Every structure is written in structure tokens, then in C-alpha cells.
Amino acid sequence: MKKKIVGSYPYTNVLFSISAALFMIALFGLFAIGTKRLANKLSSGIEMQVILDKNLTEEEKENLSTSIQNFSFVSKEQPPQFISKESAAEIMIETTGEDFVRFLGENPLRDAYAVRVDVGIEVSALEEIKHQLGSIPGVYEVVYTKSMLQNIRGNMRTIGFVVIALSFIFFSTAVILINNSIRLALYSQRFLIRSMQLVGATQMFIKQPFLLRGAIQGAIGGGIASVFVALVAISAISSMPELIHLISTKDIGFICILAVILGSLVVVSSVYFSISKYLKLKLDDLY
């Protein structure tokens, strides 16, 4: 008969369950990071139309552009884009299908700058920015689409709620899966645990080998999950390079390290509470 080793229990099934659960958590963790970064980009990328006075000289337009760029809230990645009244008329004619310039006999539109601002989506902040841009000499009016702002705010609230709800569901499912796997595995060790109790072993002495093995298994399971998560993430970025703006290699590394740490903590916790339960059971309850 094969001798049982303290802290030893069916290894493969438990490791598979741990790896699968941590893979699920880690993959969703990357999804949550990407979703949050996308929401931030949407919320910080509000475009305003700075409409200019008529008959400004080229030098005045250049000076006005410089004044706009000097504001800290103006995007440095996307400087103000000049839109001439002729270009604006062509776009409107193409969109509406009607040549209003020929009908009116003149182009009523004005030159403008499309300005992208890097701020949150609070209406009060945007109104203050609108006031500051409008106070620049040579600016006729500043406009932005408030309905789009409201849609973004609504979508962000929805995304935030969904991410939080799914995070709770995924984490709870993973913990329950790991905990059940550990409890089933320790079931085969219940008589060995009782035997150690009967010979006078302290609770900590009994728990120590199980906890050590659990920590190692959790770390290994986290490592296996990390490898598969990294492969999935790298494959996704290779197929869609634009994802690199939402998920970086640092994010992948952080999630992988977190999976290893979380794996050890969850498994050790499950082992600790499961053994504590067996230590409190009466002999008849072990059968």
C-alpha cells in the first residue's frame, strides 16, 4: 500500500482547476484595463469648434492658433486643425447634397479650428474651457456637441457598472471553483489529519505542510494561467495592432504577476479553512 505524505493530495485535477480559474480572472482583468482605458480616451477626447472672426489675416490666424495651443487642456498629440470656410462648405454640400453657396450667392460659413481638449467630461469644466477659448481675440464663437457628451457619460456609467458586476461574478466563480477543488482534494487526507491530531500534533504543525503545498500549487497555477493569458494577449495585439493603445506589455506583466500572487493567496486561504473544518469534526463525521 502506498504511503500517504502529509500535505499530499491529487495534484493534476487541482492544478487544472486553479489554472483555469486564474486564467479566467486574468483574462477578464486585461479586458477591464482595456475597457477603462478606452472609456478614459472617449471622455478626454472632446472636440470643440473655435469659429473665427471674418477677414482675419494669415498672421492673425497663426497667432490665434499659438494662443490656443498654449492652454494646458488642449491635446498635445492632436494640435488644433484649421478648417477653412471653403473646406467646411464642401463638406456640408457633400453631406446635404445641396449647393447652398450657389443658392445664397456667397459662403456664409467662417474659418474655424477643430480643438481637441484633454479633460474630463464634466459639463462645468467644458463650459469654463469654452469661456477661455472664446475670450481669445479673433474668436467669434466656440461650440461643442452636448448631446454627444451626454451619450459618452451614459455609456461610461453603463460600462463601469458592467465591468464591476462581471468582476464580482468572475472573481466569485473562480474562488468557489478553487475552494471546491481544494476541499475535494483534502477529503482524501481527512484520516491522516485526524491521526496527527490523536498523536498530539498542534493545529499549526498539521496545517503547515498543506499550506506550503497550497502556496506552491497556487503559484504554479498562476504561472500556467499567466503564460496562456500572455499568449492570448500577444496574439490579439498581433492581429489588431491598435489594441496596443489599450493594453500595453506592462499591463500584461502586471496581470501575470497578480495572477501568481492571487493564486497563492486564494489556495492558501482555501486550504487553511478546509483543514480547520476537518480539525473540528468528530470522528463519526469523517465517514
Helix-strand layout with pairing:
Elements: H1 11-44, E1 46-52, H2 58-69, E2 81-83, H3 85-96, H4 100-104, E3 112-117, H5 123-134, E4 139-143, H6 146-187, H7 190-198, H8 203-239, H9 249-280
Antiparallel strand pairs: 1-3, 1-4, 2-3
Helix pairs in contact: 1-6, 1-8, 1-9, 6-9, 8-9
Index terms:
single chain, 287 residues, 9 helices, 68% helix
What would you note in describing this structure?
Helices cover 68% and strands 7% of the residues. With 287 residues, the chain is of the alpha+beta class. The protein has two domains: 11-41 and 152-286, no CATH class; 44-149, Alpha-Beta Plaits, CATH 3.30.70. The chain has a four-stranded antiparallel beta sheet with strand order 2-3-1-4. Residues 1-7 have low confidence and may be disordered.
The profile of the biggest β sheet is:
4 strands, antiparallel
The averaged pLDDT comes out at 79
Could you say which overall geometry the principal axes of the C-alpha atoms support? rod-shaped
Topology, number of strands: 4
Q: Separation of termini?
A: 21 Å
Oligomer: single chain
The low-confidence runs, each spanning 5 or more residues with pLDDT under 50, are 1-7
Q: Looking across the biggest beta sheet, what order are the strands in?
A: 2-3-1-4
Helix content: 55-70%
Radius of gyration: 31 Å
Query: In percent terms, what proportion of residues is strand?
Result: 5-15%
Number of helices: 9
SSE class:
alpha+beta
User: H/E series, N to C?
Assistant: HEHEHHEHEHHHH
Number of domains: 2
